[in-house]
Every structure is written in C-alpha cells, then in structure tokens.
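Homework-ish question, so no full write-ups if that breaks the rules, but can someone show me the predicted structure for this set?
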Amino acid sequence: MSSLDGPEHTPVPPPILNPAGGANQVRVRAYNERLVLSLVRLYGALSKADIARRSGLSAQTVSVIMRVLEKEGLLSRGAPVRGRVGQPSIPMHLNPDAVYSFGLKIGRRSADLVLMDFVGRIRMQLHQTYAYPLPDEILAFVTSGIEEIESRLDDKQRSRIAGLGIAAPFELWNWAEEVGAPPGAMEVWRDVDLQADIAARVSHPVFLQNDATSACGAELVFGVGPSYPDFVYFFIGSFIGGGIVLNSAIFSGRTGTAGAIGPLPVRDRNGETKQLLEIASIFVLENMLRERGIDPEPLWYSADDWVDFGEPMEVWIQDSAKALAQAIVAAASIVDFSAAVIDGGFPDWVRSRMVQATIDEAAKLDLQGVVMPEIIEGAVGAQARAIGGASLPIFSRYLTDQNVLFKEIDHAEGT
Amino acid sequence: MSSLDGPEHTPVPPPILNPAGGANQVRVRAYNERLVLSLVRLYGALSKADIARRSGLSAQTVSVIMRVLEKEGLLSRGAPVRGRVGQPSIPMHLNPDAVYSFGLKIGRRSADLVLMDFVGRIRMQLHQTYAYPLPDEILAFVTSGIEEIESRLDDKQRSRIAGLGIAAPFELWNWAEEVGAPPGAMEVWRDVDLQADIAARVSHPVFLQNDATSACGAELVFGVGPSYPDFVYFFIGSFIGGGIVLNSAIFSGRTGTAGAIGPLPVRDRNGETKQLLEIASIFVLENMLRERGIDPEPLWYSADDWVDFGEPMEVWIQDSAKALAQAIVAAASIVDFSAAVIDGGFPDWVRSRMVQATIDEAAKLDLQGVVMPEIIEGAVGAQARAIGGASLPIFSRYLTDQNVLFKEIDHAEGT
DNA sequence: AATAAATAAATCCAATTGAATTATTAATTC
DNA sequence: GAATTAATAATTCAATTGGATTTATTTATT
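A: Not a homework solution, just the prediction itself:
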C-alpha cells in the first residue's frame, strides 16, 4: 500500500503506563464470586436463577458459586417463593453477621468509631468530641474503642471482622486557624502516618480514605447510589468536602482527593471571588454564632443536638446555597452528572432547607447549554463518613461495584 | 448476635442498575488478545517475553495468543534484537496495513474525511469548506469521499476497513447565530439522525462521538495520553469544547458530553460572568476580525493558512487564556487532573502562545488548596477530531485502553 | 402437561506448569 | 586467538488444572 501516504502526526512520547494484567480462571472465579455477592447486596435478595439471568452466567456456574458462598456463611437462604409455575425459587440474601467491619471517622470536632455489619447496619458505636484532634488522643480512642467493642463480641464474631476503615480529612494542618486550634498545635499531623500508626496497634487490616470521599462512598452503596450512576457529592462538615461517583463507582483520582471541591472559586454575596469552603462550611456558622454571642457547642456533639439558631443560621444557609449552586453548575459543565447530592453533619431538617435553597439559587443562574443534575438530599446522613470508612474493608474483600476485573481496588491497605 | 443493635439508616431505594456480566474463558481470551494488541500499540514493539512480563500472563499463553495474531496479520515480526545474553528477542509490532478506518470530522466551517491505518497514520484525506453545514451536503461529501478513497484501494485493502467514525458537534442548531448561519437554516439538524443516515449509505459499521471528545481521544491514544493518566482537554474550534480522560480512558458521561466545558461560567475582562465558549472560541476571533474589516476566511480552510492577525488576535489570545485559566482551576477543584491539555483548530504557533498565556494567567489566581494540573500543549493538532473519529472503529474491535473486561465499550455502534 | 428451579455428570477450553529446545553472551581453557 | 563450557533468555511442546458450559435429570409447582 505504498501509494497511501500522508502526514504523520507527532510521535508518541515514552509511555509510563503499566496497564492491567491478563485474565485467567482463578481471577475469573474471584471476580464472579464478588459479582454474585454484589448483585445480592444490590437487590437485597436474589435466587440462583435470578443471578444467572442478571450475570449472564450459566445456571450451573451460579449454582456452584452460590453453594460455596452459602457454605462459607456469606449467603443465607430465605423462604421459598411459591405462587409461580415451576419449582419455587429460593431467594438468597447476604448474611448480616457474616462480616463485620470497623469504621473510624476523624473530624475537626469529634471522632466516631462504629461497628458495621455485612449489610451496612451500624451495630455499635462510640463517640468522642474535642476542641481539635491530636494523633495520640485519636490513637487512644481507637485502640480502647476497638477493645471495648470486641469485648462484647464472642470469638466467632471477632474472627469475622474484615478490618478497620478510617475516614479522615487530608492535610489536617491546613486551616487550623479557622477551626480555632492554637497556633502550631495541628503541625504534629504533618509527620504522622495515621494508617501505619493505627495498623501497628490493631490486629486487622487498616484502610484509609478521605473523609468526604468516604461519605460519598456510603451514599453510593447505601444511599442514592443505586438510582444515580454518576453524581457529585457534597458533605458539609466543619469544612465542606465532596466526592465524585462515575459509572457507579467512586472516582478518587490521582491524589485521592477528587471531588475535594473546597477550593472551587465561587462568588459570595458581595460578588467577590472566594473559595467554596470559606462559605459553605460549618465552621463559618460556628464563627457567626460566636460573633453574636451564641454558644456553638450544640454543633459539635451530635447532629440531633442542633437547634434552630434563627437569623444567623438562615443567613448561613442562604450564603451556602448560593455557593453550592455555583459549584453545581461548574461541576455540571465539566461532567454531566445525573445528580448533585448534598449531605452533612447536621440534622435532616437543616439538610432539607439547604437543598431547597440550593435548588432555588440554581434556578437564578445562567444555565444555557448546561446539563443540570437533579439536586437532591443525601439519604445516609451525618454518619456517612464513618459508614463509608467501615465499608472499605468489606468492599475490598467481598464486593465490587465496579465492572472492573483486573484493576486493584484503590483504597490503600496497610500492613 | 442479638445484643448488637444500633440505628439503621435510610433503606435502599429500588435499584435501577444492571451491572456487568460474568466472566468465562471466551471473554478472557478476547480480553487477553486485546490486551496484547494494546500493549504492543502502546510501546510500539514488544517481544512475546516482554508481553508476558507486562501482562502477568505466562509465556506460553502469550506465545499462543501472539502466534494467532501474527497469523491473522495483525502483528508482524521485526528484526531479532541481539546483544544481550540469551536467545535474541523478536519484537512484534502492529502491522500498519492490518486495519484501516475512516474518520469524518464535521465542523461549523469545514468537514474532513481521513483514512487512517492501524498505527494511527493518516493515509489519505479529503477536505471541504462551507459557510455552514447542511445534512445533505455532508452526506454527499462522505459517500462520494469514501467511494473515491476506496477506489484507490485494492480488494484486500478494502476488506480491512474496520468502519467509519464520525466526530461531530452535538446540537448543531444551537449557536447558529454566532456562526453566521441564516436564521432557521440549522434547524434541519434537529430531525437528522446522522449516524443512521450515513450508516444506511455506507457498507461499514458507523460510530458517532462528540467532536471535542473525539479530539480528546486522539490525544489520549496518539498524543500525551501515555504520559498522563488523567487530564482535562480543551479543543478550541469554531466553538470551544473539551473532553475528560480518567484512568487513561475517555470518560464520556451519561449524555456523551462530559467535558463539554463550553457553558462553564467564567469572568471576562470586565469582571462579568460569561460562558467559556463566549470568549475562547474561534468564532469570537472571527467576529473581532470582521469588525475591524479584516477578512477572516484564512481561519476556515487549513490551520496552516493562518497568518498573524496582530492586535485583535493578541486580545483574543489574552481573553481566552484568562478564561481558560479559570476553567482549569474549576476543573482542578473537582477532579485532581494531572494535566490540562490545550489544542485547537489553529497552527502550532498559536497554540504555543495560547498555552503560555494560560500558564501566566493561572499563576495570578487564588490556588490555595488546589492541586493544579500541568498546563501543556496538545501533541496531535488540528486534525485531532478526525483522527479521534477514525480511531473509534479500531478501538471498538481490536484494542482497549481501559482495564475493563466486561463493560461494553461505550461508543454507540450503528447497524 | 407445562413450566421453572436446581443440580449432577460430562465436556470444553484457556491458562498454567514443567520440561525441552534454541540462540545468544560471558567466562574459561588451551 | 580459538575452542569449550556455563549461564541466560526466548520460545515452544506436552500434560495438567480448573472453572464455565452443555446436557440430562430431578423436584416442585401451577
């Protein structure tokens, strides 16, 4: 074909990629087992025949896999479903007690330790507040907390703990000032490898993920995830953070901070450019209350302790909604998310008001050509970060929400 | 474990997902074959032993697969490499003539039809300009063009054509005004299913993708892609558009327009909020030239025909750079891209000035907490859209850059 | 009788394992 | 310097492994 000649374009630069590995039966079986478990989790309960239809695997293959999973105690059989022609089908569901997992949420004002079961229910929890977090205190809290919770389990139950997932803010030393910590107090965090330190004191695998990303993961798995394949997620804590779900999977990005969203430039009430986190964070409300001589302590403890703080809270919600609306438009201009999910460390009634205000503010913006996502409330709530953390060990070992076979699941695992 | 009790969170809403299918040997083989071809493409040439190491497959497996691929003519062997201990390795490379593919780029001012080979080289090309595009003219151009190009191929070559990939703007009828089309002239596009119409006249599989997304795909495969696993891509054509690469794969989103970027709100020179496309598009430069009585026609034909238009062009570059810098910060706040790639339907020297200006403008912005991407020039250039289009049929059938085994490759295929 | 779920047995197929073959360089001996 | 031997690496042949499919059968229901 020498007659075909044309311009060549720029030559390929030296590749740095190391693509995925090849496939073999062992991996195929591991994948199919996870697929079965994930399908069961997603639908609550499915018969072997259902799984065969939904997975495209043969009935026999599914039969074999599910028998093994049942024998291992991961699946249990429900009551036979009669009323249709043919042999009654036996719905299989996840055995809630098959796997437990610890979730540790570290915040600027409080820490939570939860024990979650295989179906995402919180079975025990511990809570601690502080003016600002310090590594030693956190370490003490998590080790004594795990000890205490485990003391209430029997040997069999303890052996079923898949690990500990930590949901923590990255770069805690930044914005120490905004949170009212004494100068320099947060600097210790610079040299702390929390995952390693905790892993050294705990006999389970330890996982670490950004706190907002974790909350997003909880929303994906236990909240609106099944209804929306792509969404941008905002979690309003002491500082606002967020996460991104693409193709029904958390996208955590190169540095693990995709969807951080905090530094996004928006215009404030006066038309000045500010970063989103300077407006739509709880520390802003806290400072507003303090300026007005109102005690902000109810904000710290539990979301249920919030009261209606009246005017300052209303201003904060309005300002935040305005900023969130702009953030959503910016996000939608970059990725055509089907939803924007807003949740936070506050009670449901605050979330409702925040979401409605954001919907109203979004309507005032120039939306020509923008595929606007549905703006909705998160379904998980204030505990989302701890739940997301706790789900890390479980997903790492038993489940998959990605249709990906050979890529390592990208939570870093310690030890 | 009845002693373990805790609050339950909101129950799962009815799922709508239909997750991926299960795995079996047939799919494994198909996947491994694509993996081998993709590795060879990425690295230019690799021996069987290299592939075995990089894929994690056994040498024997790779040997069998590659022998088949060689027999099918997709791979050919290079000269044995001596100079190292042991049997000399035989580098295998893609046979450029194993597969051909047509790429059709439809623009607001011109259309291109290219014939691309298996290694991404353009082997023939045709070009047509117009004041504005109309379906019938496009249809005539593509059918006669394909006929002409095929007439210069022999039977064997014709049989190796994998298909036709179209890179076209979505919603052509919008912004008809900005491009100077007579009122209503572009409305015909509303009722046209271009993919179907062309598929009915062409004997090859037809693929369709947004033009900017296609350009982005070309950059991923033939440009900077191998060096950057995630990047946001801007293609400055008559209208600016863009694309997104995540995990070394095009992310095209729910509506196929992820990374459209055009509607992103930015501040213009005067501090007013505008959409990115109202500033950083070639039609803006065109109008500026026309206002100053300068003939803008050189902009339309080929990128090589551009001349330095002096002051108005400088203003356009500055304005565009300012807007692009803001867009990059917004994008980086949402996803921690490793690079922001700028390319366009203009000559290389314009691209260089645009990128440098954008780097300068970005430095002036508030970047606290933002993980800024590297701002770099595209390596493919003005033909990126057509090349990206032409690569659709090839990737659909022979290659994979995603580590994904069971998800359908998401270019829609017609007929 | 028809239908559907579940499963046992036999078969198939792709990857792996282990051994053998081939081609080369490196080191040693004559 | 030439010949010999060892080491190394690429490739492939033959046998094995293991998981999915196919086919046939059983069970339970309308």
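Now go work out the reasoning yourself. Hint: Residues 22-26, 47-49, 52, 59-60, 63-64, 67, 84-90 of chain B lie near DNA strand D (CB under 10 Å from a C1').
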